[in-house]
Amino acid sequence: MIPISLFETAHSSVEFVSRAISALRIEKRAFIDGQYCDTELSIEGKCSPVDGQAIPGVASCDAAMVGRAVAAARRSYDLGVWRRCDRRSILLRLADSMQGMRGELALLDCLETGRALQNYYYDSIPKAIDALRWFAENYVRLRDESLSAPSGVVARIVRQPIGVAGLITPWNDPLVPVMWKLGAALMMGNSVVLKPSEYSSLSVLRVAQLAMEAGVPAGVLNVVPGLGAIAGAALAQHPDVDVIGFTGSSETAGQILQFSGRTNLKRVEAECGGKSAFLVTGRCQRLREAAECLAENLFYNQGQICSAPSRLIIERSVRSQFLPLLVSAAGGYLPGHAFDVSCRIGSLVSRRQRERVQSYLDEGARTATQLTAFSAPLNPLAVAPVIFDEVDPGSRLAQEEIFGPVLAVLTADTFEQAIVLANGTRFGLAAGVWTDCEDEATRAVAELRAGIVHINCYGEDTMEAPFGGMKASGFGKDKSLLAFDGYSLLKTTWQRSLP
Ligand code: NAD
Fold first, then answer.
1. In this structure, which residue's CA is closest to atom 26 in ligand 1?
2. Number of CB atoms found within 10 A of residue 376's CB
């Protein structure tokens, strides 16, 4: 076990962290029906984006393994074992043991994804733990509804678990989307088969063991690591899965919706990507604050955040003041060594992602004006912040989710034009508007087609508020009491009282 004090002592050098990682006993097998199981295949050849060290090949589940996991989940659900448990106490115990393992979970996620260790330790892992606690503690706030009907009959609308929930999650913040879904699904009384991203499975596999130790019965939580096209597709097509809780790209969400239509019409909750707009209007006076807010929310985690504001829409009247402030703020997000606990920014997740980001950098070099000129990072998988000005609103740079530290700047002559530009992509996850004008703020809230709108701020976060988008950014809601809706069914009952 990695001591929490790793982060609070002088033993925090890159060498010390590397030694701590080599001392970890890494679990890479699937977790089915309460035990780790061997698979015939594993995902070989993975290297850590931090330093290129080989990562043990995690299990690659095929359709048969996924079928075993779904059967175990169905059996446990039908037996009702979990619904009879004190789920609140068990999940709170799991949250406590994750807290105790916080250092180890942070190391595993950092090793696999290249994001800075300190982000995981101080921000991401605590958020995941808080989410689990929140669902455990707030489930009691759900209420059934009773309606009086004529002739002594009472109608009740009761909420019940949906059955077997398949959860499919991304790599960019491995445990947070997992806990946003798992906390709601388990607390509601469902059994779960979880398919983590092939780029970030190790911490999830570790949590499976902690869950068992905390008292989650066999079959209630199963983890099937593997490739999206094989394990993910098998889960999404399985006729005995009742809901897929998905976070990932819009393209994969589209495939999963088709799988559902072609199989059992299972419910699909989809949380997808974005190309979120950050509007700075001519009425904004706090330009420095706005620039710092934009830089922090885009360049944190190398831009690999679904709600990152990757398009700046600036009114012409404040452009020349704002852009130099932004370039200067971006300089605070230069990548370093992800194992260095004093470093805030690590690298991109993989060589593939690096090449993808490069294709946008090449396009920007040809078609736009680059405002930044930071020197290249030591890690070849990391990218220093890039700001492209004079971007064509119809171009790939302005329309596609890059998932890298790359900002497209578009200029508007009026507030109305800024709103049109902001709404001019297929995505609708988040948006931010900086203005000192009350009327502009009110109109932005009404007119922006985004699931989350920030006024004079960005990236605010609490478990009480729902998180989710519209358009190609998806339609589910993670967090808040609304998250239970995704993993429950409403049943209307009519009852005549006995004479
Ligand atoms: P992805 O769509 O490639 O993969 C997501 C998950 O789906 C992975 O587990 C993957 O193995 C699986 N998968 C891939 N193909 C599949 C298929 N055919 N059938 C079933 N499952 C399949 O996305 P990613 O690259 O892992 O993650 C990045 C994306 O996630 C970005 O678009 C990002 O914006 C989005 N994201 C959204 C949120 C949100 O809350 N809205 C949060 C984090 C990430």
1. 170
2. 10
